[in-house]
Amino acid sequence: MKFVHSIFLKIALSMGIVMYMAYAIPTRQYTNLYLIGISVFTALFLPIFTIVSTYLEQQTFRLTASMFASKFAKFVWQSLYNLFALGLLVKGHVIDTNNLRMVGGLVGAVCLTSLASQGLQYLAIMLSNHGKGNRFANIFFALSFNVIISALAAIGYKKIQVIFIILGLALGIIGIFISLVTDIWGIVPSKGGVGLFLGTFNPVHKSHIAILKKFIDERHLDKVYIHPTVIPKMHQYLLDKEMIEIVKEDAGKRYYEKSALADPLVNFFPTGKVFYEAENRLFMLKTAIKEAGLENKVEILSDTKRYQDDGFYAIIKAIRKKHPHTQLHGLLGTDEGGMLLHDIYDETRVKPYVVLRRDNISGTAIRRGEKGMTMPKVTTFCLMSKKVKVVCCLVKQHMSLIIVWRLLMSESNTKFLITT
């Protein structure tokens, strides 16, 4: 019964209704079996379609390190569905092919619909990232608008067709082709400037340090700012909505699980359910940077207020204000977090530096106790943290659980001090 409450399923059912009404009302073909069939198919198939679409996008980026390639793969998948749907509507005489001439025939209508869909979804997610509306509601309204405008254009409303062509091309540029420009911009040789390395660092590991050194050397950077997430914005939103919950806090880590209110079709934890507390990730970062001898090039930031206000957008804005006439370069990987960062960098005019990782180093493995994947002192910290007791202290009149370690390393011994 949980699937009945899935937001994906609700959006799919709603989209089926929107599709049916968008074609049935202007054509008055309420009993057309082709229209009814494709509307029902859309309602049932859309959740699977979305999962496959997301998988193709993520895997293409992981394999190619190209945002354009990943979005183009998604575009092809969406176009196949749109070709199937519009083709059936043509066969069922809901759409007259003569009315499609202005938009480039059936193929033109399919391409414009898919381009508009990509651009509208990009804008919907961008707005939600800035705290403007709910992510899923934004996507629903974007898709609904696209279905309605494409239906009216396909039926033959000339003025709507002009709008449809302009919107399709403009939104296609926003949703797909800007990524091509930034992909090319990112690989064009460039020297000098300030670097950004943003992420969860859960925890920092050897790959982070290796690609950071390469980033500094290849771009000849004067300085690199590192800022870890505090509580990831999506996690905070889901916690506020009681869709996920913290089931345990132990050894400086918090353990998440879905709540009874969670959507069963949504993966809320693509990088795992275990997170080191923000102060511990920050401490491990400082330890790793010092151990790597990068203190003269790297500054680690922890601007909690700005991050909570507008995420990494606010952090980038603050750094740009500090370096107004300097090119900013953004380091990112090819995981899901890297895709999110790439969109942020595209929007904020940060030159991307994408690293295609081929090693087996994993934050998940480190959190499970795997050795040798991070800097020696950080490895010791991760393993010994289980032995550290928890200290409760009163902070600003609220009881908070704060675990702060200070790792003292010498040739002869290792000690942990708990401070508040």
UniProtKB/TrEMBL annotation:
Keywords: Membrane, Transmembrane, Transmembrane helix. InterPro entries: Rossmann-like_a/b/a_fold (IPR014729). The chain crosses the membrane at residues 7-25, 31-52, 72-90, 102-124, 136-157, 163-188. Gene3D superfamilies: HUPs (3.40.50.620). This is Substrate-binding protein. It comes from Leuconostoc kimchii. The lineage of its organism: Bacteria, Bacillati, Bacillota, Bacilli, Lactobacillales.
